[in-house]
Design goal:
The structure is a homodimer of 439-residue chains. Chain A has 439 residues and is of the alpha/beta class. Chain A has a single domain, classed as Alpha-Beta Barrel (TIM Barrel). In chain A, 39% of the residues lie in helices and 21% in strands. The first copy, chain A, has 14 helices and 16 strands. In chain A, the strands form three sheets. Chain A has an eight-stranded parallel β-sheet with strand order 6-7-8-9-10-11-12-13. In chain A, helix 2 packs parallel to helix 3 and helix 11 packs across helix 13. Chain A is globular. Chains A and B meet through helix 2, helix 9, helix 11, helix 13 and helix 14 of A and helix 2, helix 9, helix 11, helix 13 and helix 14 of B.
Chain lengths: 439, 439
């Protein structure tokens, strides 16, 4: 948090927090005790139990739902600066005429404020952990650290099949991994993040696989987002992107494969065997018109646990995981089966499975787990009546129902107030103007 | 408004309102003067103009976007009581085992509080005008009147092909039309609302067409929502629902045809020739897995202006038209073309075209138009940066960005406070419990 923040009327880092009488998604009334960042005790009031111990900070949650914070497994946070800058365009002109020229004007400062804006939006909509791939990642790490969130961060390697550029990109990846190590934050982890099969050479991808194995790092990569990507891969390598990446060693139990839309049965079997985590971005897929829905049912049949991401705000255009949950559940139903991806499973995608994919012990409301918790306000029309909290969360709510956000026991938002919000909005607005004007 | 409401710190019905320095969707800075419920004057500050006259109530809108209130052209408002009661089910068991048995326990009081909850949710998410089809419509009219909104209301006629029931339903429709006439509210209009071709006999539908013509009323009906509906119609009548309804005289320039998903080219030509207004409900269509997307491009090519609806909350499960705008725009793109239904046109669907469909002079921010206006808060992460207000409205915002709602010059919400909100949430929660327990 920055020094200028005004006092928001709540302690940011109390040693202990007692959340009293909250409603769980399964409609139990519970007390939750948090000590040193961990859920140390939970009591079920429906069984007549309650927590009597006092705490540094006590929250009366009688009109709140308590649930794990959400986990966004694929985004490019600093792209908030390009929110609404270009929409409703074909993919190639959108990238070539709009997004890439703007990104060429990025600076460390712009990335810092773009990421701060993203973190603010995520906190306000209940996301506490995210997986990011972008540039100037040291600035992203600083922003995450300043906001109190958790993240898996990878420098977006793009060598464009040039040996010279590859060496530069390898250096940047190594430097960022060292930076994160030196930062020593328990909330920030480094990933290796080759952008995609069509922007990184085989040599680059093989280096990523080996470096990730050597340093025991996660891998974050775009896979089979569009039909063109698959067709080009078959034309160039004689095989699908998944088979090719598998051969190069890129698909591991710590790999997050963003999009994973255009997969065939063999690709899905490879995912299962190699332990890859697909990250589904339904909103981005629809907006960019990738033409197909991620094969969710086939993945589930194969025993895979798909996770959920927003993608960057240039192709979404928000970071609201509540909205993404609804899009995911409804997009699966569209084809003709309303029973696919029910509400409870959608919440699992966005919490427990996402946390597993990113290697964080989180996404579960239980004793011994880190206190990564959000409280939802039920005193709102869209949250009334309270027949089924899972349904309300997935089908009725937007992220604006989130009242309180606690990450590792630190209070990031209370009664919708986030310290430093005004400064972030101002600085990010200025940064967005700079990015487009180039001044 | 009810007598118990506490004072929310703003006048509900000032004679004049001055909205200062608001940003329009086209990024002009304007002053808007409202007198006796009408936008009497607008000045463009970018041209150095401003309004100097004082007003009873002045709003500094320097950090607000001003736009017309949204128009929801298809819903069943009181179904808020069933929000989250049953999801992720096949259509027939969902209707037969869950929705219909619950609806059989409806009472006038339950419908009143369900509708109040719906109106509260609509006001809080920027919808000022809606088109409703349900039961105990006198109660719906009272709720709308008490909330200050505008609505087109029709009793949902279902004769199930029985002559006896038809006579009862005709009587109920006639009674409700008289009720609305006697109510004499400038904000409430009556429609004739035969439910659908598969629940109303030809005799019933023909009566509706004649009665609507005689009384110069709008018609509200479900048309071609599912493939089964079309196949059954062809089996029974030898023609599609659209052709059959056309023959019976139900399709008029005042007819709102909800869903209109499974249409062929001839159906679309009939819509165009008869002047029918399609109401698209993308969220409901996806959730109930109707299996196809409304043929938006084909409708536009034929010169039709499609409008937007949420459908009832049992199949959505909210009334947030901002969310429905995003679903509509993205669902059209999904097939493979990201340029279809761009943001600006999506806003037209949800404002101007919707108002035309329901026969209200509204949906346009201009001198001489009724003051049906909403102000959006731009000081939020998802509304930052301000590159393109249209894009923010459709792709980034949820209804929670709405700060102020003015309908016919009456202030329904100011700084997100709606008079009587707490009472509505309490009474509607109790009503929902009653509906499910049957007590």
């Amino acid at each position: 948090m920055t020094g200028e923040d005004r006092d928001e009327g709540f302690p940011r880092n109390p040693r202990s927090i007692l959340i009293k009488n909250a409603l769980t998604l399964k409609k139990n009334r519970v007390d939750v005790y948090i000590e040193n960042g961990v859920i140390s005790e939970m009591k079920n009031r429906d069984r007549g139990e309650k927590i009597g111990v006092e705490a540094d900070f006590v929250v009366d949650a009688s009109d709140k739902i308590v649930m794990p914070g959400l986990v966004n497994t694929h985004t490019h946070a600093a792209m908030t600066l390009l929110r609404g800058y270009a929409d409703d365009m074909e993919l190639q002109p959108w990238l070539e005429k709009k997004i890439w020229p703007a990104e060429a004007r990025l600076t460390p400062e712009l990335v810092y404020w773009g990421t701060r804006l993203a973190c603010l939006e995520m906190i306000k909509t209940g996301t506490l952990i995210f997986n990011d791939m972008y540039f100037y990642m040291e600035e992203v790490a600083k922003a995450v650290e300043d906001c109190g969130m958790k993240a898996l961060l990878g420098y977006g390697m793009i060598d464009l099949f040039s040996e010279e550029k590859r060496e530069e990109e390898i250096k940047k990846t190594e430097d960022f991994v060292s930076f994160v190590k030196n930062l020593g934050s328990p909330r920030i982890k480094a990933a290796v993040a080759p952008h995609a099969i069509y922007t990184v050479s085989d040599e680059g991808l093989r280096w990523c696989a080996e470096f990730a194995e050597e340093k025991d790092l996660a891998i974050h990569i775009h896979v089979s987002e569009t039909r063109k990507e698959v067709e080009d891969s078959i034309a160039k390598y004689g095989e699908s992107p998944v088979r090719h990446l598998h051969k190069l060693g890129v698909l591991t139990p710590k790999t997050v494969a963003a999009h994973s839309v255009w997969l065939d049965d063999t690709d899905i079997r490879i995912y299962r065997q190699s332990g890859v985590w697909p990250s589904h971005s339904p909103v981005s897929n629809m907006k960019l018109a990738v033409g197909k829905n991620m094969p969710y049912r086939e993945m589930r049949s194969a025993g895979i646990k798909p996770t959920l991401g927003t993608d960057g705000t240039a192709s979404n255009n928000n970071l609201d995981m509540f909205e993404s949950m609804k899009f995911a559940a409804l997009l699966q139903k569209l084809g003709g089966n309303p029973t696919v991806l029910p509400a409870e499973e959608t919440v699992e995608m966005a919490t427990e499975w996402g946390a597993m994919a990113l290697g964080f012990k989180s996404g579960i409301l239980g004793e011994g787990y880190p206190a990564d918790i959000i409280l939802l306000d039920t005193q709102r029309p869209e949250m009334t009546p309270l027949h089924n909290p899972f349904s309300l969360v997935v089908y009725s709510a937007s992220g604006s129902v989130v009242d309180t956000a606690i990450c590792d026991g630190q209070i990031l938002m209370y009664k919708r107030a986030v310290p430093g919000e005004k400064e972030v909005l101002e600085k990010a607005s200025l940064a967005a103007k700079k990015m487009l004007s180039g001044n």
